[in-house]
Design a protein that fits this description.
With 282 residues, this protein is of the alpha/beta class. It has 13 helices and 8 strands. An 8-stranded mixed sheet has the order 3-2-1-4-5-6-7-8. Pathway: Lipid metabolism; fatty acid beta-oxidation; Lipid metabolism; butanoate metabolism.
């Protein structure tokens, strides 16, 4: 599958776009407005710096070639018209995803394969809205995908097995290690392990048990992990944990969302890619 469309140019969407182009795919980057798309050149510059730092084969020539493989558009019909695989990476709001996939299903070519990068919702939550559930499944990437290069492939009971294997092969083609899930699992493998850690860290912080720095230091020192949970939050960015927590019935989760909004999002502290999050990276 050479023709790739990515819906959503946020932190992870941008990474999927750039990594696919870096591995030689022709990629259309879609977002809802030209104003949002105008920020993409800066995103490519940021990603180029990370690639140069982390990958020995990231020559300037290859990075320039990757950017040349990317085309941006705010016209959804134009974005999906020639796509062989469409990967959705929009905010974690189920109704929004269902609505977008309903539109895509009416516009995309019949042979196109549909993938959601949703970190929390099951493919079966979305598949009926696509109009072609047999060609729909999840392809979930870990943040900083150029080096944390797993891609979890998770179908639903109605996913065509041949489509599943084509997506696993596509994941390999763009430099990922495909992780095949044999049944639907909220949070896949990665987030089933990671989210309890992040939630526990948020709980400790909101309840005033320990500081952000000490929570992170405890995890790093005691386990040998390279990053603490709040450093991981900064890589993920503030919007995903905010969306996942703001409507929670758990008072601690709700308080966490309120503090994210007031102390970080409203102050432009959106995470590592913005230069500031829980930590200052400037």
């Amino acid at each position: 599958m050479q023709q790739v469309t990515v819906l959503g140019t946020g932190i992870l969407g941008s990474q999927i776009i750039f990594q696919s182009a870096y591995m030689g795919k022709d990629v259309v980057a879609y977002d809802v407005s030209d104003e949002i798309l105008a920020a993409l050149p800066h995103r490519w510059q940021t990603l180029e710096a990370h690639y140069r730092e982390d990958l020995p084969d990231a020559t300037q020539e290859r990075l320039d070639r990757a950017v040349a493989h990317i085309r941006a558009t705010s016209d959804l019909a134009d974005a999906v018209r020639e796509a062989e695989v469409i990967i959705e990476a929009i905010p974690e709001q189920l109704s929004m995803k269902q609505e977008v996939w309903g539109k895509v299903g009416a516009l995309a070519a019949p042979e196109a394969i549909f993938c959601t990068n949703s970190s929390t919702f099951l493919p079966s939550d979305i598949a009926p809205f696509t109009g072609r559930p047999d060609r729909f499944l999840a392809l979930h990437f870990a943040n900083t995908i150029w080096k944390n290069n797993t891609a979890e492939v998770m179908g639903h009971p109605g996913t065509d097995p041949q489509v599943f294997e084509r997506v696993a092969a596509f994941a390999e083609e763009i430099g990922m290690v495909p992780i095949r899930l044999h049944k639907e699992q909220p949070g896949y493998v990665l987030n089933s392990l990671l989210v309890p850690l992040l939630n526990a860290a948020a709980d400790l912080w909101v309840r005033g048990v320990a500081s952000i720095e000490d929570i992170d230091a405890t995890w790093r020192i005691a386990t040998g992990a390279p990053l603490g949970p709040f450093q991981i939050y900064d890589i993920v960015g503030m919007m995903t944990p905010y969306y996942l927590s703001k409507d929670s019935t758990d008072p601690v989760r709700k308080k966490f969302a309120e503090r994210l909004k007031h102390d970080y999002i409203d102050q432009g502290r959106m995470g590592r890619d913005s230069g500031r999050g829980f930590y200052d990276y400037r």
